[in-house]
Amino acid sequence: MDAIVIGGQKIQSAADRNNLVSHPYNVVRMEERWAEVYGAFEKYAPRHEGYEAGDVQLWVDQMRAARKS
Q: What contacts 13, CB < 8 A, 6 or more positions away?
């Protein structure tokens, strides 16, 4: 990773990604928040047979594959 400094804070940038990251401890807070989000999905939007019909990325991938063939 390449690093730059902005306002005294070291910012990491990976050339192959569209991510800028700093403050490594934020990962802990992100994990806490994602645990809450996953719990909400489990309770209010559980997966069931055919659930993938609502997966936009899967639909886009299928459309792209169909265009190639």
A: 1, 2, 3, 4, 19, 20
**DSSP per-residue codes, the chain:** -EEEEETTEEEEE-TTSS-EE--TTHHHHHHHHHHHHHHHHHHHS---TTGGGG-HHHHHHHHHHHHH-
User: What confidence tens digit (pLDDT) does each residue in 3-58 have?
Assistant: 777 677 677 666 666 777 777 888 999 999 999 999 999 999 998 998 888 899 99
Torsion sign across C-alpha atoms 42, 48, 54, 59: positive
- Joined together, the tokens standing for residue 26 give 């934020």
Cα-Cα end-to-end distance for the chain: 38
- Cα–Cα distance, 53 to 18 (Å, whole number): 28
